[in-house]
Amino acid sequence: MSTERVAPKTTVVVPTYNERENLPKLVELLAGLKVEGLGVLVVDDNSPDGTGDIADKLAIDGPLDISVLHRTEKNGLGRAYVAGMTRALDEGADIVIQMDADLSHPTEVIPAMIDKLNTTDAAVVLGSRYVPGGAVAADWPWHRKALSAWANFYVNTILRLGVKDATAGFKAWHARTLRTIDVASVESNGYAFQVEMNYRTVKHGLALAEVPITFEERSEGESKMSLSVQLESALVPWKLLLGKKKL
């Protein structure tokens, strides 16, 4: 009888829209981690710059197990993550990591996130800019730093999530956590998606943990932050608190 340990299946879900320059770099960085059982699921929203084609080529001859989910419309980061996470669960992932394709999230922190997930009672581990050792991009203008800090203060004042970086978008999830919070039913987008996911976790009595990261500004392409996303991010915490959103 074999006693060989099978590594957990870890799927990194990466939504893309016009990231043809960044995606191959991200895949190389992930491959360089040498994490056993690590694969990538690219969720492309019909990028006009051909990111989807780049992803398909990487799936054929890339350095990792890569799959691609092609979506026909661009209807928000939250929708892309829900689609990708749902697919990852359907395909048997034990751990699901969510991260941006723009190289703002440091891949080298992933082993520490996985380790914390596996050695503590954490249901999800956040890559946090605001715990000791974490930092935001040095080249961020003061008003962007202020907006980010205010957003976290605002969310935690309303929802009391008990974390320093409530709007973090770099996370490692146990698959069972995503099933428990019913990720397929999450409707929020943008930062509001991150907040709703955290809130659902807390409401189920599950623990959130944080590890420090240094968040970097994207190296190629343009930010996807829109006015509608900002407005939703301001309203969703109140809707969650007042029970206006289905959980």
Automatic annotation (TrEMBL):
It comes from the Bacteria. The keyword ATP-binding does not apply. InterPro entries: DPM1-like (IPR039528), Glyco_trans_2-like (IPR001173), Nucleotide-diphossugar_trans (IPR029044). Residues 11-165 form the Glycosyltransferase 2-like domain. Gene3D superfamilies: Spore Coat Polysaccharide Biosynthesis Protein SpsA, Chain A. Keywords: Glycosyltransferase, Transferase. CDD domains: DPM1_like. Belongs to the glycosyltransferase 2 family. This is Polyprenol monophosphomannose synthase. It comes from Rhodococcoides yunnanense. The lineage of its organism: Bacteria, Bacillati, Actinomycetota, Actinomycetes, Mycobacteriales.
